[in-house]
Fold this protein.
Amino acid sequence: MYCLHCGDCCRRFSPLSDGPCPHIVERDGFTLCGVYDSRPQQCRDHTFMARFCPIGMSIVKPTSSDEVRRRIDTGWEMAR
């Protein structure tokens, strides 16, 4: 599954706290993990039965496949 970096999962589910993940980082309209390389296994394993995150698609509302690709690529570059 490709993440669109909308942050919904990290705001609703956190193996580290009862609320939003304490390691959420907001940057230029993207929600990123501040501890990506050492994130918990539950976060590493998180997935949907779809190619693109359906929640991210509904939040971001991309208007073209190019926009989806740019958002995925830019988000992963920023996360590293």
Q: What stands out?
A: The two ends are 18 Å apart (CA to CA). Helices lie at 8-12, 41-45, 54-60, 65-79.
